[in-house]
Input
Amino acid sequence: MEKQKRITLNAEKRKVIADVFQNHFEDNSKFKKAWQDAKENYNLLRKVAKEKIETLVRKHHPQEDVDTIRSMINKYGDRNGGQLYEDNCFHVQSDELKLEKDYHGDMVEREQDVHIKFGDMDKDFLTSYYRDEMKAKGIDADYDVRLGDNYDKRNPTYYNSESQVNKFLGFGSRNDVSQKANILPKDEWDNDFKLWVIGSDYCSARRFKTNHNEYLFFCNFNNAMSDVIKCHQQMFNHVNKKMEKLKLGLKSYRYFDQAKELADKLGVVLNESILDAHSSMALSIYSPTNLADLLTDEVEQTREEKIAIAKQLLQEQQNSLN
Output
């Protein structure tokens, strides 16, 4: 009986194997479940927060007054009958003061307010929120949490990932035509919820006072946003620690069956076919149909787009094998 030839590993095959382990570590992590729960909790609280803030704003800025000012503006011109602004951020103030020490060490009473936003969302939040959607497109949404506080270690790979994330989310410079033609996540959040308020576009100029329990709800709503970011960081750190050890081990493995033995012990599904799928990627990219598209002037693609195609095809093949 002919002895089966052992598959020798190289850097490319080790990378494919590492990706399989990483997906397993993530999908079976309690931290990913916590991150998904944090997103769901934020979505639920956001729905309630919309109702509460509309009730609160209309208590202070009745619809009748808004309609009167709009009528005056229409009759006498902008700013001649008052000011209106369609806002999606609000300062909510508690009707209770809090005691705290001033710089002299004396106890003083201070107002309590919280700034809540339904649009103009922080990039860190949107990056965490859409992390899986970007990952499916081959975009590294972990680029910033991977860096941590080591800002001096930013390199071309970091800036390339940053650019891809910005493009996906809708941050950065965009002309009016492209912004209207392509509705990106940032646009969706900015236009999701707005209320007409009396005054200018300066959100900080308005304080909507409410009872302390309602104030605490809005504080919790803000905390729910922070939890999405925090859970994303915890998930990455948990998996990254495992991956650092795994990659050191893979470097010492010469043959696929060594990685397969490790995978079996950890309950990771790892088959030789995943290597075959990856090795056939070039053939998939340069199939007659795909090659014809690449050679057509009207569909000329950039290097980044070609890489994205390759990653997408690999992901599809991996999904079909799992």
Q: What stands out?
A: The radius of gyration is 27 Å. The chain has a mean pLDDT of 85.
